[in-house]
Amino acid sequence: MDADADCIFCAIATGSADAEVVYADDAHIAFLDSRPLFHGHTLLIPREHHETLADLPEEETGELFVLARRLSVV
Description:
This protein is an alpha+beta fold. The chain is 30% helix and 19% strand.
């Protein structure tokens, strides 16, 4: 897994920063926002570091959005 030492999301993905994790698998992690816009606001990220969504390899976007859709109805 590629990680950026200065990235809080990488720290959460590797377990070196605390987060209220609601879902995790080998490639993704979802956790509650520490400053939520609304109750239950959840952030879903790939475990591998990418600066922006546009930097996420196209072959990984489908799986991420399928998971986001599944998490949105829980």
